[in-house]
Design a protein that fits this description.
Layout: E1 14-22, E2 32-37, E3 40-46, E4 58-66, H1 69-89, E5 94-95, E6 100-104, H2 107-113, E7 125-127, E8 129-138, E9 143-145, H3 158-170, H4 177-191, H5 195-210, H6 217-231, H7 239-249, H8 255-265, H9 272-286, H10 294-318, H11 325-330
Parallel strand pairs: 7-9
Antiparallel strand pairs: 1-4, 1-5, 1-8, 2-3, 3-4, 6-8
Helix pairs in contact: 4-5, 4-10, 5-8, 5-10, 6-7, 9-10
Amino acid sequence: MSEASGVRAVKTKFRTRLRVRLAKPLTTTEKSYVFVVGGKNVILESQDRAGTLEGATWVVFRAGGFETEKEAQEFGQHLKSIVDFAGVCDRLGVDVGQDRATSVFTQAGIEAIIPTLPGTSENDRYWGANIHGLMVMPDDEHNRILQVNIEAKVTADPKQFYGCIAELGENWPPVKPTVTKGLWLLNQALLTSESVAQIVLAISAVEEMGQDEKWSPNQLQIIERLQAQVMDSADLGEERLEVASALKSIFKLSLRQGVLRLLVRVGLPHLKTEWDAIYGERSALVHGTAGITDRQLEELATKTVSICGAIVLATAQLDGCKIPAAARLHFPAIPAPIEN
């Protein structure tokens, strides 16, 4: 009703909801905790409001009573920055998200689910997107955020695993320590679910093996001639020693030079361009200049592991290892073995 009829309209207020992921649950049996941020009470609780914080890695920060949606949004961004900063300070690890949904229901899906929910009210409003990050909504008890709880188990085909062991067991020659280290690093990349870690570890596996590469005899002759020429330049005095020392240091190949030589040696010279591309992406990630979406990051991780895995296994093959058939399915870039 209008104010003229004697009933004052109730102005809608807003609340902010910040949903984040913790690296590990908090050591507490409490269901909630209250902070004061900028004069506002902020409630922290498990995403599952019936559960305790002790078992939750997905948690929600809530604050209400904002007069406008803009005010709630500004406070939420401030809160998000604080939580992000605190996660580093406490060495806990917090993913504050990018304000995107981790699960989404269509309007048709919402309408189909509502009749199955207990205790529903005609005043309830249903949100089909469960946002990882910041979300602003009316500040009342009629918000219902639909979420999907899925427990999934990913398993591997045992036949392939058993087959690989059997094939490798037939003929397992001694491999170089760098190959062993490369295989270990690649396994670490496969064990982690974090895309950035997969990329860094997989590239490190290849760089490790690239350190076995050397200059060619002709190139070594050129370096030695340059050193001799510098040492013969008596008029340069002590400066010649510094130059000679610098020339001596280039006896060791750079990481990139080592990898490029490795690619040629194992029969994968065509991967040079792709190697430079994924290495450049890795550098951008490390220096915070990548600017790619989560999906693109996952795709880059998959591609990086595939390329680096092929290089690692191709190197092992050159050392005399028989590559199992299953490996060629997962890493199709592995070249055919060289017939003696």
